[in-house]
Amino acid sequence: MKEASHTVRLITTFGRRSEFEKAAARLQALGLPYETISPEPGYARVGVPALVVEQKVRLELAARDGDSDFVHAGWVEFRAPRRPVPAEPPPEFAEDLVGEVAIMVLAPCVADKSRMRFIAHLGGSLAPALPYLNAELPEACYNPKGETLTFMDRYRLVTLYPYRVVVAKNDDIVDGWRVLELVRRRINETWARRREIAPCYQTREKPPALEIYKRLPKTNCRACGQLTCLAFAVMVHDGELPASKCKPVFEGDCGHLRDALVEVVAAMGMTP
Ligand code: SF4
C-alpha cells in the first residue's frame, strides 16, 4: 500500500468482524474511498480487518453522522506496516486459554506519538497460566495479587491481565497483531507444558534501573558527573537526572544506543 506523504491518513480497527463490515458498507453507501488491511491468514485468530481512510474522509463520515452506525477502536494516524502478515495460518491449541481477541481501544502511544498502543479484550482468561509464565520469564514483572504480568518485547511494553492485553509502542497495526499472536502462542504453549513447569507465585519487581543500565555504554567515563554508569542509571530511574546527560550516547560515539535508551526511558514514563 503506497503512503502519500502530503496526505494524512487514519486507521481504525474493530472488536468484531461484523462492525468492520458495517463500517465498510457505510463508507460504500456514502461513496467514500477506503482501504483495508487484513490480519489473515497469519494473524486471523487475533484480529479483524482494519480500515484506512484519508483524514478528509473521516471528517466527512463524521459530518454525515456515518460513524455512529458501527463500533470501532479509535482513529490513529496510519503507519504503513513494516512487515507482512505471515502466509501460514496460526496454530490451533487443544486448550485455548486466550479465546476470542478483540482490540477495543486504539490510540497514539503516550510515550511516543509516532507509535500506538491498544487494549485487547479476551474471551478466555489468562489467569491460570500467569504463574507458569512467571516461572519461564525471569525478566517479567509479576503481581499475583493484581494478577498482572508485564514484559518487554524489545521496546514494546506488554501487560497481561486475566481478560485483557495492553501493548504500548507498537509500530503499526500488523506489529500489534504480531504481538497479540505472540501472546496467544506463549500462553497456550506454556499452558500445554504446565506439568513440566513449577509455577512461580513470587512477586518479582523488574529493576527498572537495570533496564536503563543495559542501554548505557558501561564505560564509567564519568562525563555525566557520576562515578559509574550504574549510578547514573539509578539517578535517571529516580528522576534526578535526564538520560540526555550521558554525553557519549547523545553527543559522542555511542549514538547507536540512543534510540534504545530513549525508548526504555520513555516507556517508564520519563522524558529522555
Ligand atoms: S556519561 Fe554515560 S557512559 Fe559515561 S559514566 Fe555516565 S552513563 Fe556511563
Summarize the structure.
With 272 residues, the protein is an alpha+beta fold. It folds into 3 domains: 9-77, Alpha-Beta Plaits; 101-196, TATA-Binding Protein, CATH 3.30.310; 208-267, Orthogonal Bundle (3-methyladenine DNA Glycosylase II, Chain A, domain 3). 29% of the residues lie in helices and 18% in strands.
Characteristic key phrases:
272 residues, alpha+beta, Alpha-Beta Plaits, TATA-Binding Protein, 3-methyladenine DNA Glycosylase II, Chain A, domain 3, 3 domains, six-stranded antiparallel β-sheet, four-stranded antiparallel β-sheet, 8 helices, 29% helix, binds iron/sulfur cluster
Structural write-up:
- Strands 5-6-10-9-8-7 form a six-stranded antiparallel β-sheet, with helices on one face. A four-stranded antiparallel β-sheet has the order 2-3-1-4.
- The mean pLDDT is 89.
- The chain is of the alpha+beta class.
- The two termini are 34 Å apart.
- 33% of the residues are buried.
- Helices cover 29% and strands 18% of the residues.
- It folds into three domains: 69 residues, 2-Layer Sandwich (Alpha-Beta Plaits), CATH 3.30.70; 96 residues, TATA-Binding Protein (2-Layer Sandwich), CATH 3.30.310; 60 residues, Electron transport complex subunit B, putative Fe-S cluster (3-methyladenine DNA Glycosylase II, Chain A, domain 3, Orthogonal Bundle).
- The structure holds iron/sulfur cluster (SF4).
